[in-house]
Amino acid sequence: MAKRSTPELNASSMADIAFLLLTFFLLTTTMDQNLGMPRRLPPLIEDEQEKPPEINKRNILQIHVNSLDNLLVNSKPWEVTLLKDEVKSFILNPNNDADKPEKEVKNIELIGGISVSKGVVSLQTDRGTSYKMYMAVQNEIMKAYAELRDDFSRSRFQSDYAKLTEDQQKAVRGVYPLNISEAEPRDKGKKK
After folding, report:
1. Is the Cα dihedral 51, 137, 70, 131 positive or negative?
2. CA proximity to 90, closest of 110, 112, 74
3. Which of 2, 7, 59, 125 lies 20 to 30 Å from 33 when distance is taken between CA atoms?
4. Bridge partners of 76?
5. Closest to 132 (Cα-Cα) out of 62, 71, 61, 60
6. What is the pLDDT of residues 71-125, one digit of tens each?
7. 56-61 contacts, C-beta under 8 A, 24 or more apart
8. 47: alpha, beta or left, given left = phi > 0 and alpha = psi -120 to 50?
9. Domain coordinates of the chain in residue numbers?
10. Separation CA 71–CA 190 (nearest Å)
11. Per residue of the chain (192 residues), what is the pLDDT tens digit?
């Protein structure tokens, strides 16, 4: 009896099609670039003898998170949910309180002369601080600045900050600069 021959498929064109599909998806897919958190780094001190500039104590809002995820604001126990409002109140200092930051008049393009806070938000964590707590504190600080900028944008330009032109956004950032100082995490039990 004769063997039946089965027809074979030519698979070489399948490899070409798979390669073309792979190339298509690689070329058309966009990858999100995570830019990280915007922070202003302190200037590089070239001479070790040179001291950093002195900042008036009233101009610093000290936020500390210990290894047990307890939050302290200016050495007082604090709730994370109240942090945003405290940061806003600190930066705004509407009553020019003596224990809140000083203000200086700056001339900002598109806005003119305006009082700008000298306030700095200082964040210090312990090495044992959980990532979840660290991010919760960071989010509250950033929400405070976002709300300040949105409120000012609405009052000055009748639009949300995100909808402003680049020059308008730059002007608003001049009124509410992101002055956040983040110190290196400390080990529990070690002195400063």
Report:
1. negative
2. 74
3. 125
4. 73
5. 71
6. 999 999 999 999 999 999 999 988 888 888 999 999 999 999 999 999 999 999 9
7. 56/102, 56/118, 58/98, 58/99, 58/100, 58/101, 58/102, 59/101, 59/102, 59/118, 59/119, 59/120, 60/119, 60/120, 60/122, 60/181, 61/86, 61/87, 61/90, 61/119, 61/120, 61/121, 61/122
8. beta
9. 57-182
10. 18
11. 666 777 776 767 788 888 889 999 888 887 766 666 666 555 665 665 566 667 788 899 999 999 999 999 999 999 999 999 999 999 998 888 888 899 999 999 999 999 999 999 999 999 889 999 999 999 999 999 999 999 999 999 999 999 999 999 999 999 999 988 888 888 765 444
Question: Two tokens at 22?
Answer: 């792979």
Cβ 123 vs Cβ 180: under 8 Å = yes
Residues 85 and 97: their CA atoms lie apart, in Å, by 16
**Cα 176 → chain centroid:** 13
**Rounded-to-integer distance, Cα 163 and Cα 150, Å:** 10
CA distance 68 to 46: 36
